[in-house]
Amino acid sequence: VQLQASGGGLVQPGESLRLSCTAPESIFSFASMGWYRQSPGKQRELVANIILNGNIRTIYGESVEGRFPISRDNAKNTVYLRMNYLRPEDTAVYYCNVKIPEPTDRTRLRDYWGQGTQVTVSS
Known about the structure:
Elements: E1 4-6, E2 9-11, E3 17-22, E4 32-38, E5 45-51, E6 57-60, E7 70-73, E8 78-83, E9 92-102, E10 105-113, E11 117-121
Parallel strand pairs: 2-11
Antiparallel strand pairs: 1-3, 3-8, 4-5, 4-9, 5-6, 7-8, 9-10, 9-11
């Protein structure tokens, strides 16, 4: 699954950015679709995710909840991350992610990652 991510850049604290991630097929073929981030010396962490199997719902990392709403455009196979009130600690490489059930065991999920987009928040 080749995911196309875009929208990163350099902004000042308090400003906003929007990230986009487009999949080559319907997002409803995935168990979930969303964003993770990784900054130097830290583990990759959840930013926001849309759970697509069963009841559709969103989950957020604690540090971004209320600031980074995630949304989707089903017709465009695209998920968006609107990043508001950006802080220097939001600086990281942001990765689009989808989780796809294994064909032989639907309870097991495989991760697929986009190429990563750099977000830098600095004055």
